[in-house]
Structures are given as C-alpha cells and as structure tokens.
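Moderator note: this is an archived Q&A kept for reference. The question asked for a predicted structure of one protein chain; the sequence and the answer are reproduced below.
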Amino acid sequence: MQVNKVIKRYETFIGKGQYELRDLVDLLHIHDVDYNEISGIDTLSEENEIKVKHFLVKFFNAWGLETRASIKPVSVHTVVERCWWIDHPETKTRIWIKSEQVAFDKTGKILFKFYEHVEKEYLYLLPRSKKNEEVFLRFDFTRGNGGVEWLHIVGNGFSWY
C-alpha cells in the first residue's frame, strides 16, 4: 500500500497528525491486516493469542509509516526450537550436531517443521550430546519487496527479536 494512502487512513480513523495504532481495529482499517486471517492464529492457545494481539499493534507502531505501509503478516506459530551439541574435548568449542524448529498447535500436536539442520559428520556424537529446548512464538512477515523474515515474540508480546 502507498504511504500517502496510509497517512490519509490514519488521519481519517485516528486524527490529523496521529500516527500510532491503538488496537487491532485500527490495524484492520488502516493497514488492511485482519488478525483472524493471519495463518496459524487458529492454532494458538488463548494466552498466546493475547500476546500476539499486543505484539501486532506494538510491532507496527515501532516502524516508520513507509515501512508500516509495506508490512504484510504471513503467519504466527508456537514453535519449539531444539539444538543438540557437544563441547569439543580439546578446544572446548561447541560443536552443533543438530537443530530444528517445529510448529505445534494448542493441543501439542505437531503441525510441521520450519527447518532441520544436521551436521552429518558429527551425527555419531548425538547420543552423548547435550540438548537445549526453547518454546516461543514465531512471527513471519514480509516488508517492502523483500522475502519472508521472521522473529521471536517474547514476554507478553511487547518485545521481540
């Protein structure tokens, strides 16, 4: 959407010189982003839905108007990221053996894998490796003419990286 059209919408729905979204209704009217149409929303727990609602308004407001005009949410999912590693006995450096990101729904059912990476030369070390797991909300989006980007939504939806 063109930035001039977005500015006009802000001024119509919120007020002249007011360029901060207040809620999801503003997001729909100004940026044509329907929360319920974002892929994966229906798979989230009630708690995670609340986080995503907070996040979306805060996320859009964090950008300038030109970038906001180009942002298109793609999907949001609850994800577990698992990493297996072993510390090299001589160099004490960490050798990553395997990592994966798996999306799951509110019942814990696996939906799909975002990715899996395996270092085949170290796979024999997997039984002796250490494992780390992190559960987070993954938000995928596009902006401008770029490809899909993604980030972690953390806390109550007011922070991301």
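Archived answer notes: The longest helix spans residues 46-61.
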